[in-house]
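Treating backbone geometry as a discrete language has practical consequences that deserve illustration. Part of our work consisted of pairing the sequence of a single chain with a tokenised description of its backbone. We regard such an encoding as a compact summary of how the chain folds. The amino acid sequence and the backbone structure tokens for this protein are reproduced below.
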Amino acid sequence: ANRGQRLERWAQLLEQSPSRRLTALAGTEYAPPDVRERMRTDGSAITVAFEDPIFRAQGLQDDTYGEAKRFFEMSDWQLHEVVCHCHVGANMPARWAASRVRAAVSPGAGILAWLRAVFMH
């Protein structure tokens, strides 16, 4: 699967339970790169991806920030938008995370998904 297909699948997995409360990672933008790469928390949007047997078969090794960045081929900024607490607090509905994943797939179209998530949050 290519990057776009992996991101689309991740968004779909998140949308399967749109009201599921996900735990946000705290301060990814402030952590030194080596610490940020190892960051994880139970019940995060990355955990949802790691729970998927297809992603694990494709090589997703764990639910750390660094592994998600590598596997989904995302920039720090893109992954920060999906998982960091600074946008939503300690937790977020899965539909919010899905909208941010979709924004990484198609930045222009992502704004509409983001607005929908903001108003539904």
